[in-house]
Here is the input.
Amino acid sequence: MTTKEFIDIDFSQIESDRMRLNVGPQHPSTHGVLRLEVELDGEVVTNVIPHIGYLHRCFEKICENMNYQQIIPYIDRMDYISAMNNELPYVIALEKLMDIKVPEKVEYIRVIMSELNRIANHQIAIATFGLDAGAFTPFLYLFRDREYILWIFEKASGARLLFNYFWVGGLANDVYPTFKEDVLTIVHQVRKTIKEIEDLLIYNKIFIDRTANVGILPLDVAISYGCSGPVLRGSGMQFDLRKNEPYSIYERFDFEIPFGKGEVGTVGDCWDRNIVRVREIEQSCRIIEQAIAQMPNDGDVQSAIPKKVRPPKGEIYFRTENPKGELGFYIISDGKDKPHRVKARGPSFVNLSVLPEIAKGYLFADLIVILGSIDIVLGEVDR
Amino acid sequence: MMETFNIFDKIFGISILSALISVILPLIFLIIYALVAILGELKISAWIQERLGPMRTGPYGILQPIAEVVKLIQKEDIIPAGANKFLFNFAPFVIFAGSFAGFAVVPFTAAFVPAEINIGLFYIFAVGAFSVIGIVMGGWASNNKYSLLGAIRSASQMISYEIPGAVVILSAAVLANSLDMQKIISLQSGFFWNWYLFGGPGPWTKIWIFPFTLILATIYMFASLAETNRTPFDIPEGESELVAGYHTEYSGMKFAMFFFAEYSSMFIVGAVMAVVFLGGWNSPFGDFMGGFWWGIFWFTIKAMFIVFIQIWLRWTLPRVRVDQLMYFGWKILLPFSLVSFIVISLYRIIY
Here is the structure.
């Protein structure tokens, strides 16, 4: 850029060969079947066009032909990494529509499960982000911990990824007897590993060089694109639906909202988005510990489950804080046992749309890091 | 007439037979070493990552590299449409030849060097640069944009990192007053404080250059990591960006050639480190465990230790970006190596 001042040539007028590169759909670091059409000038990215739809499964149309209860497994398959969190807004929306009051114990189990799943999701996000930057070992450390969390899910719901655990008005089944001890052990282990990851990856000089001042997303751009979750908080906004619009029983817990402060670079860079996730794991651990302490031991988790889920005529939009951002379900009921329309507002889809805005002008290697820092799941982008 | 070091020349006379043995022995060594190194890579990465690694093939999975070679031999040999067939097929051999040629001057022990030339260090550098031609050739001929990007990155990277590496070699040559590997090694005989890593042989005045030789050894380590395309400088084949870089389109034995070439150049790096800084085939403890056969042992141990460090780094560090790599090479390694070179030259003039 400095040469531009001395030599009076308009560089944009010079025709140079730009290379069009198809990144994906089969590529190691597109986090699924995403195709990025990248225009490269040497190594510099001049344009990015994400092409989505390779995993489209007509979720919203299928919902119109299913009972309310039968939709929950499909919701699991949207963001398959954090399925518990996906089910939460849907069941709460229907409970609100049908005026169901769920038992205390159910609320606590839902919160614990959601937060455990948030930890599991952030572990994958940090792990794959490290992988995008070339660090392979932290990836396996985090996956080892995630495995313990999945064991809890498996013991409670019978499934490792797609749980179908939160039902309208209750849970599929009660937790097992040693649930509390298991959860506390895992919280301890998660904290230990996060400390290790901070030493090994997060504050590594090479990692900071790779991620700081890269893919800067200014706050106004983030808001105008409708970003949410760690992507928005990484840009410096303290906005978390658990705190700002408390749902379920989140107002009972004491926790903080981590946000990007630009500690090693500029506010809103890739490192900030990642550190928000790292710190959210700690906050989730705090919530889980408080919830475990407060959780009542007895209570029937299925007492409030209605015989037939048939909400009255009406519509509702309910949103919760997914690990990736704001996940909302807009449900229109016409009084039958099948919804008239279900619309999902997925965080990954909205967050991905900001990629062309922030990836231009960086190197090709940065594009991969930026994509990793947004943390998308293609199952939810395409639905 | 130069004094010969080659034991086979002494046994069989300077004949075609001794020459053949001298050529075949390093090749056998390379193949065995490559299998060990592949197993080492699998097992060390597994230990670092709290895994077991391969366990099914033989006891503790020690036959895994053989299984992988058998698998690669069986693979279909695919030539992508639109590829330049001749260059595509030729490139793996160029790369392999480049890194195998380095073995010609590796002094395995006091009495055996495949080819004695008195500019061994210079020769290793010259043929080491050869493999960049093969990489560019393969990357360009693949008719794949990822391969092309990887090849271009590799070319710029290897050429820029040769310069600090060469300055290090130059400093060593100044210290030893020779480019002959056997002479450099024999100068470092005795105890391990005679190694050039610790300032080389000589009186107490060597403490003036001791920090600089340490710096030079570190610089050579970094530069050679970049030259062999290993993490943290593996951007030409950075998996998350360029899929597999210049060898994306290769399959079967041609892919294995790239693999062998990578491992053999890792060993060459270890060998140069061992010769220049770690005393080559000398025992670290004077005459203890010295001699012909122990020489092979010490040399291999030292070179393998450097290979181990390369594997260790690969599974610990993230990857740097292409511009950071250039910055590191030109603005950090080069000035430091030049300063060390000047200090060492001054030392040689004064003492």
